């Protein structure tokens, strides 16, 4: 069934066919067919092969049908509507919470929120330093910081769980 996908606010027609037990997909985006394979390489970090091109994505799951995806070229806010939301949202691990993960190896520079703090969508929760640049890890949804899994000065790998927002 076709649905509507919002990617950074842009509406796209989408349909997904799941193959190979959930590791392979045929994705129809605005009528164009794309073949994809997905492997979770670390918690909330995925190796993607789309039309023969390889990508790595760090995903923070929001409410069912919502996700924040970090790719090499930027951050994407994804919202699925209709039946696609049910298919994707239900399959998403921890769909009722946003799991903030480190998009790169580095060192935790600072914590910008503490457990129990209310946060808004887009608000910084943790800052990770990599190659002398500080990267703010932001909440993909409104919620409350349920847990923190890192501390300032701690070394983290790509995909390391930093915080959970519920």
Structure notes:
With 166 residues, the chain is mainly beta. It folds into 2 domains: 93 residues, 2-Layer Sandwich (Glycoprotein, Type 4 Pilin), CATH 3.30.700; 67 residues, RNA polymerase II/Efflux pump adaptor protein, barrel-sandwich hybrid domain (OB fold (Dihydrolipoamide Acetyltransferase, E2P), Beta Barrel), CATH 2.40.50. 6% of the residues lie in helices and 59% in strands. The chain has 1 helix and 16 strands. An 8-stranded antiparallel barrel has the order 1-2-3-4-5-6-7-8. The longest helix has 10 residues. The two termini are 30 Å apart.
What profile does the largest beta sheet have?
8 strands, antiparallel, barrel
Classify the fold: give the CATH topology of the largest domain.
Answer: Glycoprotein, Type 4 Pilin
Number of helices: 1
Strand content: over 45%
Mean pLDDT: 81
């Amino acid at each position: 069934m076709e649905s509507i996908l919002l990617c950074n606010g842009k509406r796209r027609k989408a349909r997904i066919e799941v193959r190979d037990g959930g590791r392979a997909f045929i994705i129809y985006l605005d009528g164009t067919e794309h073949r994809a394979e997905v492997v979770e390489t670390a918690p909330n970090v995925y190796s993607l092969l789309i039309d023969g091109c390889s990508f790595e994505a760090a995903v923070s799951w929001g409410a069912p049908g919502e996700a924040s995806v970090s790719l090499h070229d930027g951050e994407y806010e994804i919202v699925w509507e209709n039946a696609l939301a049910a298919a994707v949202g239900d399959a998403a691990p921890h769909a009722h919470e946003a799991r903030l993960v480190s998009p790169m190896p580095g060192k935790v520079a600072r914590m910008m929120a503490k457990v129990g703090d209310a946060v808004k969508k887009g608000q910084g929760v943790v800052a990770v330093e990599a190659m002398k640049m500080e990267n703010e890890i932001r909440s993909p949804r409104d919620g409350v910081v349920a847990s923190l899994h890192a501390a300032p000065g701690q070394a983290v790998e790509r995909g390391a769980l930093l915080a959970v927002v519920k």
